[in-house]
Design goal:
Layout (H helix, E strand, L loop, with lengths): L1 H14 L19 H14 L4 H8 L6 H7 L3 H4 L2 H8 L2 H13 L1 H11 L3 H12 L8 E2 H11 L3 H16 L9 E2 L12 H7 L15 H14 L8 E5 L2 H10 L8 H4 L5 E2 H7 L2 E2 L11 E7 L2 E5 L1 H9 L3 H14 L1
Antiparallel strand pairs: 1-2, 3-5, 3-7, 4-6, 6-7
Helix pairs in contact: 1-3, 6-18, 7-9, 8-13, 9-13, 9-18, 10-11, 11-12, 12-13, 13-17, 17-18
Length: 339
């Protein structure tokens, strides 16, 4: 066992140079350890997990924490903007125009993907638009540096540490080379902005070239989004609808329906589930003032800013993509405009 340990020590010294500056920002980080000390321990653990020295040198060599990553983690727009502000910045006339153009441009492959996965093209393109401006802004932050920074910070250290290992697996399996592996400040990758774990679980090689390429392939990008939604319960076309409810109606709903008691934070911010027949009796109306439909389905009420929405089971799949009502409703509203 002595020779492998000596080799690993040499790798660590090459990746974390002796005498390197001690990175200990920011003052409010929950991790008290210098970054290079944390990284050295990570390398030992990665080696024990079976990742090779050459892979570790290629992916983790010379890493330094990124201050802008920590800043962005604390100022996410879903938390800082009102719902009206968030939607107005994303469901814009330009986004609708561009989305409609791209639906036509890619209508053939989107139709094939709808047949394969059962997800409407408008929903796929809406997610594509919000995630990467229809592929124009996938992020240029080195994924390994972003994930390592967030894993070191320790606020959500366990999650990002696992994502870091999944990123190593992606490179180890030859899906993409490490220098090309760029993404958002949070380590989300490619045109659909998949985290490494989502890539391994849901990315699809739809164009048949042997690679699950969510960076440059439209077919793989669209199919991967569709596969993610289908795998999280998307069925059919509808996500829900905007409704009107008077203050008296909202008080009656709050008293009689209650809140959902499971799921992520946004899911727990919805009401309990009721049939549309029950919602008709409780009082909400369609956005145009007409009565709700009498179809036999169930829905929950979501309040966002000054607006209310009755959402169906498919809406949960959107929250699984990003658990924020600002995001999920923006996708849904953009998809409706595109459709």
């Amino acid at each position: 066992m002595r020779a492998p340990r000596i080799l690993l020590l040499a790798v660590i010294c090459a990746i974390v140079p002796v005498g390197a500056a001690s990175f200990d920002f920011p003052p409010d980080a929950t991790s008290a350890r210098p970054f290079e000390s944390w990284l050295a321990d990570l390398l030992v653990e990665a080696r024990e997990r079976g990742y090779g020295d050459e892979l570790l040198a290629r992916t983790l060599g010379g890493l330094q924490p990124l201050p802008n990553v920590l800043e962005n983690d604390r100022t996410q727009p879903e938390a800082k903007l009102t719902f009206e502000e968030y939607v107005s910045r994303r469901v814009t006339p330009d986004a609708v125009r561009r989305g409609r153009e791209l639906l036509l441009t890619h209508r053939e492959v989107l139709g094939e993907i709808r047949d394969a996965f059962g997800v409407p093209p408008s929903v796929i393109v809406a997610i594509w638009g919000l995630e990467s401006r229809f592929g124009q802004s996938s992020g240029d932050v080195p994924v390994f540096a972003a994930l390592a920074t967030l894993a070191w910070e320790a606020r959500r250290g366990a999650f990002f540490r696992s994502q870091l290992y999944d990123a190593l697996t992606i490179v180890d399996r030859g899906y993409i080379d490490a220098p090309s592996m760029s993404g958002s400040w949070a380590g989300a990758m490619g045109q659909p902005q998949f985290m490494p774990s989502s890539y391994l679980a849901y990315a699809v090689d739809f164009d048949g070239d042997g690679r699950r390429d969510i960076w440059t392939s439209h077919a793989d990008t669209f199919a991967s989004i569709a596969n993610y939604l289908k795998s999280h319960g998307w069925r059919g076309d509808e996500w829900g609808r905007e409704v009107r409810a008077t203050p008296a109606t909202l008080r009656r709903i709050a008293k009689g329906v209650g809140s959902r008691d499971s799921g992520c934070r946004a899911m727990r911010g919805m009401t309990g589930v009721r049939s549309l027949a029950d919602w008709r009796r409780l009082g909400p109306k369609r956005a145009d003032g007409r009565d709700l439909p009498s179809t036999p389905r169930h829905a929950r009420l979501v309040r966002a800013g000054t607006r209310q929405f009755l959402v169906y089971d498919n809406y949960d799949a959107l929250l699984r993509y990003n658990c924020a009502h600002h995001y999920a409703l923006s996708v849904a509203l953009l998809a409706d405009r595109l459709r």
